Amino acid sequence: MNTFKSGIPKDGLEGLKESWRGDLLSGFMIFLLALPLSLGIGKASLLPNPIFGVITAIIGGMVVSLLSGSRLTIKGPAAGLIPIISGCIGAFGGGEQGWHLALGCIVVASVLQIAFGLLKMGSLADFFPGAAIHGLLASIGVLIIVKQLPVLFGVPGSFLKDPATAPIDAATGLADLSKAKNYDIIGLVKNMPDILSHFDKSLLIIGVLSLVVVFGFSFIKGGFLKKIPAPLVVIIAAIGLGIAFAVQDIQGALVKTGNITDILSDGFINVDFSGISSHTGEFIKWVLFIALVGSIESLLTVKAIDGMDPWKRKSDANKDLTAVGIGNTITGAIGGSPMIAEVVRSSANVGYGARTRWANFFHGVFLLIALLIAVPVIEVIPYSALAALLIFAGYRLANPKEFKHMFHIGIDQFIVFVVTIIVCAADDLLMGVAIGIALELLINVIRGTRITNLFKANADISSNGNNVTVKVTGDAVFSNYLGLKKKIYAVEKGKQLTIDLSDCKVIDNSSMQSLHDFKIQYENEGGKVILSGFHGHVAKGHHETSTRVKK
User: For the chain, which domains are there?
Assistant: First the structure.
């Protein structure tokens, strides 16, 4: 881990000259982590070739790293966007046609992301209640796990189709399963026992052992093994077992990519915007999904990694969002899935000792080299092993500890969290988040928040020498926090700042969490923050950020 001994690392070319050794090593380690994950995400997202998932990571590393507003985040495809991209492709008919039309959604969503950044909307994630965001991410985790279980078991792709919707071939009199409709999540769960009964023994063994390895590595707390990327161990073991079991590429058992130069020369620009007119409603829906979920996930990662940065450097969230949008515009035009600042690879990057943005750049370079010279090795990786990696990623999003944590914060947040998960998983991600927001607003109103205070923050600022007081009146809730945020972030650095909440009727969990995050950031920059005025309030949970309501 980095220390403060050498001072804050320089940025740009000076940073490359100063920190290239550590960044090169970290970039190589992240490459080992990113390659199998990017392949798995590309496959699970229903891209026509998993290589497009890796192309996304290459652009995220070699292009976006030079433009981004954060220094230690790794840009690449995310497991959290799998249900959205696969759903988008499926909504447009699947296959090559669905992919081309979905790319149109990705490019337009990317332009929206650029606009978000240019309009200084890097605080976008602060508007959404924390319980709804966590519910959204947990629901995505559940969707990933459910949809990857058949792949883990080595079930042929044809069994993931609903035979009841398959047209009958006139010549054979048999159902053409390649043209059947995909199961929705409820149908998939309902038919899971039957689907899994068609497992392949060899692939199941590889998948289960891969799952054991990746979960086992998560329990390692330190030492040499902790430095080894678990996906690397999984892939080496899976390739060895695949060769030992003589696994053949039958019905999509092995990764098949082909040569990157051949793939891109066949069609370098693959985007199709005709969905804007032919499927207007669907087009708008998926554009919003991709832009909002991708932006929120990316912003949350930037915020989390800033907290892990040994030098406590502050990222420019707006600049980073613009850079991600530019990268997604490029990758969407070519054929890849959208990128975000990905939290697992980014946190590993910090752990491996990265100092500057060049670690992200180097990881992209290594990925490009791998696609140029290592395709024969990549093409003997069993998909069941990649499914194990994605199931673990899904587990991290829907970790049982998250349910326990939300209950600890308060029953109100737990209810919003669970309702959001249910609606997102069973119906629609955007609808789930909307229901979560509406439920949080309703709970706040029931507890005493005035309608006039829902979207307006009332705060007065006074100063006396080095002491500054922000007196908040009315209510402090997620829906009006952006107004309060403008005022407290405008306070000069290095002051002793008291945020007095004694006159607030309701201080909800999202505002409490945001104020605690502000306190940490402000104090890291040399100031002092005192959150006061809670003596007249009752906490609705057992956490320091639990909702508080005035007696």
Answer: 12-160+185-388 (no CATH), 451-550 (3.30.750.24)
